[in-house]
């Protein structure tokens, strides 16, 4: 069996949206650099980035209630919402650049406009939503947001949700039409087609087994060619570990000090998908509710209009659950194998602290379809089980680490870029807000790993992302300009008309 050996500038591990984004950025900034990709599956975007494995929300904090918290004095903290919205604007700009340069085509195949709504019931929640609306609607990033607690108005906005509602509990919603549904699977595939056209070597059915530092200070990646059964060794100056849930075990293999004392907590997910086109047609929004007390933020229930394969669909969920696998196609031994002498205490501390969460997730796994229907009925009172099927979503591996505020073994719900001190290797851990902020996260990788090139790259970065390095909230004119130009490039305004 032949042992292929190569040397290259950059290796990207995993063919998800993160590697696709980093590769596309690098090909614009340093076109002469040679890039190789290794993906263990047969196609790009088959794990979390696949359209059926995530909710496809272009997260920009327009509707997600967990990004705005109520402070002790009753005011609403919108810091996180602003941050996430600003990050999404970077994605919109980069995608628009790629479309305008005809590097990717047909944006309607990966992004569609859809109103983003938040919906709450009960007096306390209605008061919270109104305060949230007041705090956000004056901010240029959230322009156009509407609030209503008038059932007649809500019937206009969300007829399917309002039909058959007999209780007299106060109910309210906010609505903003500039939300999006993003098919991250389609986007990933487009970006890999683009990279292939630039002679990036993309190796599918190639699983990375080990990563070691060479005596010359490079990284040697050991790869199993699943088709031929052979082992290959590829060396690079820079390695990006974009393995999604599979990133943590690969980061641990590097042995870098930054990889120590970190653990992963896998959370699985299920969606209910409507199989009745008549019901699908009655809804046109992404409607986010409030997480139940004790539920983790990633299990906020939402009813989403989706555009998949040019067809409108309706998804409800996600129902979170526990599975020891780090990838949907992973192994039941993933969790246990990730426990190492350096992180065992961190993991044990998290296990002890997160007993309630583990119990909650196990209860969620054991839910019957009838129980899931009860949760769906909180959104669609007239829902019938026969109109809905179950699909298994992707795995999210939440980061566990020791923090100053949370102490040993603290569960993190965001994303973390872990890099070696010399910037020669970077890994992306965690899953939220996820694919929507891929451009922001990959810019962070560039800033941390290639500080020596940032000055040289800045003009090109500004050409691709005009607001790079600036706050759009503080530059409302630029925000308006960017909003209009990206909506035009991505066809968001025309599509809105076509589908309304
Ligand atoms: C239920 C759910 C709902 C979500 N909803 C949203 C949402 O609404 N909006 C949003 O923006 N984000 C959402 N996300 C998050 C988003 O899907 C992820 O953040 C994003 O897809 C991660 O992309 P990635 O490239 O890091 O990982 P992935 O897409 O998982 O890609 C990683 C790739 O690496 C490969 N790989 C792993 N290990 C190896 C190895 N050893 N060798 C070779 N290849 C390897 C895998 O096969 C895979 O193809 C959601 C996620 C889930 C699970």
From TrEMBL:
It catalyses: (S)-malate + a quinone = a quinol + oxaloacetate. GO terms for molecular function: (S)-2-hydroxyglutarate dehydrogenase activity; L-malate dehydrogenase (quinone) activity. Pathway: Carbohydrate metabolism; tricarboxylic acid cycle; oxaloacetate from (S)-malate (quinone route): step 1/1. Coiled coil: none annotated. Keywords: FAD, Flavoprotein, Oxidoreductase, Tricarboxylic acid cycle. The keyword Flavoprotein applies. One of its GO terms (biological process) is tricarboxylic acid cycle. InterPro entries: FAD/NAD-bd_sf (IPR036188), MQO (IPR006231). Its EC number is 1.1.5.4. Pfam families: Mqo (PF06039). The keyword Flavoprotein applies. Its cofactor is FAD. It is an enzyme of class 1 (oxidoreductase). NCBIfam families: mal_quin_oxido, PRK05257.1-1, PRK05257.1-3, PRK05257.1-4, PRK05257.2-1, PRK05257.2-4, PRK05257.3-1, PRK05257.3-2. Belongs to the MQO family. This is Probable malate:quinone oxidoreductase.
